[in-house]
Design brief:
Distance between the termini: 22 Å
CATH topology: Nucleotidyltransferase, domain 5
Number of strands: 5
Strand content: 15-25%
Order of helices and strands: EEEHHEHHEHHH
Number of domains: 1
Strand order of the largest sheet: 3-2-1-4-5
Largest sheet: 5 strands, mixed
CATH class: Alpha Beta
Radius of gyration: 18 Å
Structural class: alpha/beta
CATH superfamily: Ribonuclease H-like superfamily/Ribonuclease H
CATH architecture: 2-Layer Sandwich
Number of helices: 7
C-alpha cells in the first residue's frame, strides 16, 4: 500500500508501444487493481505514418519491404487507422472501467511532442513521421478518457519515476513497484513498471 494516498478515484497509467498499450490501474490507496495489455487496432498497418507515409515520399524506396504508395493513399490509410484506434481506445477503457471495483478518475499518458498540423506535413517531415504514429495512439487514448470524464495527466518519460517517488512520499518507488509486480505475477516487465510509475505520478497533488 502507498501510504498517504489521498486522491479520490482510481488512476490508470499507460505505457504505449505501437498500437498496443499496457494499462496499470491503482486504487486511491495505491493498491493494484488491474494490469492488462490492450490492442487499439487489428488487421491494419500499425505505423501508417512511418511506413506507408515514408513510401509515399520515397523513403526506403530501395528496401525490399517498401511498396508503391501515393500520398493520397497514405493519408487515407492514416485516417482509417486513426478512426480504428479511436474506436479501440473507447472499447478498451469501457472494458477497464467495467472490470475494476473503484471509479476511475484519471489516466497518465506519455506527453506528446509538437507536430505539424496536417497529415501530409507529418508524413513529409522525417522527424515527425518517426513519432506521429505513437502520438496518434496516445491522442486516441486521451480523447477516449476525456469522453469518460477522466482527467488526463501527461507525464515526462525522463522524470516520471522521480515524480512517482515524490507522490508516494518517503517510500522507495522501485521497491513499491517490485512488490506490486510480485503481487500481480508475471509478466511484470519494464513497461509495466513504467505504467505503474506513471499512475503514481498522476496522483501527486498539483
Amino acid at each position: 500500500m502507498a501510504k498517504g494516498r489521498t486522491s479520490v478515484g482510481a488512476t490508470v497509467g499507460v505505457a504505449e508501444h505501437g498500437n498496443s498499450a499496457i494499462l496499470v490501474t491503482i486504487a486511491p490507496d495505491g493498491q493494484l487493481l488491474d494490469r492488462r495489455r490492450v490492442d487499439l487496432t487489428r488487421d491494419l498497418p500499425t505505423h501508417p505514418y512511418h511506413h506507408e507515409g515514408s513510401w509515399a515520399v520515397g523513403r526506403y524506396v530501395d528496401s525490399p519491404w517498401a511498396k508503391q504508395t501515393t500520398m493520397a493513399e497514405a493519408v487515407a490509410l492514416v485516417a482509417r487507422v486513426r478512426e480504428a484506434a479511436a474506436r479501440g481506445a473507447r472499447e478498451a477503457l469501457e472494458a477497464l472501467a467495467a472490470s475494476v471495483p473503484s471509479p476511475i478518475a484519471r489516466i497518465a499518458i506519455r506527453a506528446c511532442p509538437p507536430l505539424p498540423a496536417t497529415t501530409e506535413e507529418r508524413i513529409t517531415d522525417t522527424g515527425a513521421a518517426n513519432v506521429a504514429d505513437s502520438v496518434m495512439y496516445r491522442e486516441t487514448l486521451a480523447a477516449a478518457a476525456e469522453a469518460r470524464g477522466w482527467s488526463v495527466f501527461w507525464y515526462d518519460r525522463a522524470s516520471v519515476f522521480r515524480d512517482a517517488a515524490k507522490a508516494v512520499g518517503s517510500q522507495d518507488i522501485d521497491e513499491l513497484l517490485r512488490v506490486m509486480g510480485r503481487a500481480a505475477g508475471p509478466p511484470w516487465q519494464a513497461k509495466h513498471k513504467l505504467a505503474g510509475a506513471a499512475a503514481f505520478a498522476a496522483t501527486r497533488p498539483r
